[in-house]
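Subject: sequence -> structure tokens, single chain

Hey, anyone have a minute? Need the predicted structure for the following. Not urgent.
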Amino acid sequence: MNDYLHCSVCDFDYTHIIGTIQVKDNDNYQTTEFIVNHEYRISAEKKYNFRSQGNIHILLRCEEGHFFIKSFDGHKGNVHIDENPLMDELAYYLNKVYKKQKELTLYFDFELLGNIEKFLKQN
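Reply:
Had a minute. Here:
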């Protein structure tokens, strides 16, 4: 029996890792910076449910075109898995933006980075 990661939108098992997101935060449950693929830094002030003791979020896309995020957040000695509303909102936003995309891309590019930044700059 094989255990595959399934898309959280459509349950398809053909999924691809697109990139990673790490969140820097302050002690007031507020983000200060997103680091995408350990390289691109985006300043952001968004509500964040964790005072992080480490986090990593894996951005994925299925071959049906849906984005979804696997989240791991350390908080007070526990690691919370997929309990991050901000990452859920980001995936929802990306799915909305790319809904009418004609050619499916399964890689990270500057357009995607720009759309992540647009999401973070929204009020």
